[in-house]
Amino acid sequence: MTAPGTATPHDLDAFAGRIVFCLWTGPEIMSDARLRALWTIFRNTGCGVAFITRETVGDWVKPDFPLHPAWPYLSSTHKADYLRCYLMHHYGGGYTDIKSTSKRWGPFFDQLAASDKLALGYQELAHGIPHITGEFGDLLRRSHQELIGLCAFIFRKGTPLTAAWLARTEALLDQKLEALRRHPAIHPLDQTGVLLPNGQPSPYPLRWAELLGEIFHPLTYEQRHQLLLSPIDPSFASYR
Fold first, then answer.
1. 8 A C-beta contact, residue 59 and residue 87
2. Would you say 211 and 82 are in contact if contact means Cβ atoms under 8 Å apart?
3. Quick one: which of 71, 119, 126, 171 has the most CB atoms within 10 Å?
4. Residue 97: which of 235, 238, 190 has the closest Cα?
């Protein structure tokens, strides 16, 4: 069921592209904390909110740009990771995790529109980049003040930045497709090696951050001169 007031693709012109996307891509029941967080997004951002579920995701798929064939085999978490990338490239606008916010997003859209930058987000924290190891991972953590976080941002659509993000994401899914067909996700937080209820490690072929952070942080480091930093971050307390 579509949440009251949820924006649809037909509303984009009315909102002049200033839509904030929220995603809930699996069959799982949303917790009370998540529901409260969702309503802060509807109530406080002051923008159109597109709350996309597994029932409505098809409304947002461009006919000439179908979702990757790996889509049915992904965990709910990885579906959300992929979909935010797809949406930012094809539609642009805002995205936020379903976490509480008290912030109006209009000024953030204004800041990006008045700049020559391609994306706006909050300053990433060093401990927000734990998944990339070695010297490059150390470089990313030292450079975190120049990078944007994963949980709330605004992108211009159809830019070289979003094109590279989507291309790298879909290239990874191309590589993993056959393994995903053999070992699809069996729960929303599935990841390589996590212990399943039967005590065996999961054969699901994607690491936790492989489809998002391991692509997003290196890419935004490469294009950090195209980023605008602003305190758009939600609350990270008690959101589950």
1. no
2. yes
3. 119
4. 235
What are the pLDDT tens digits along the chain (240 aa)?
344 468 888 777 767 779 999 999 999 899 999 999 999 999 999 999 999 999 999 999 999 999 999 999 999 999 999 999 999 999 999 999 999 999 999 999 999 999 999 999 999 998 889 899 999 999 999 999 999 999 999 999 999 999 999 999 999 999 999 999 999 999 999 999 999 888 999 999 999 999 999 999 999 999 999 999 999 999 987 656
- Local structure of 3: helix, strand or coil: coil
List the structure tokens of 215.
Answer: 């692509």
Count CA within 13 A, CB hemisphere, residue 34: 12
Return the HEC string of 158-218. Answer: CCHHHHHHHHHHHHHHHHHHHHHHHCCCCCCCCCCCCECCCCCECCCCCCCCCCCHHHHHH
Please report the domains of the chain, with CATH numbers, ordered by start residue: 9-229 (3.90.550)
Q: Residue 61 corresponds to which tokens in the numbers above?
A: 């798929």
User: Which DSSP symbol is given to 105?
Assistant: S
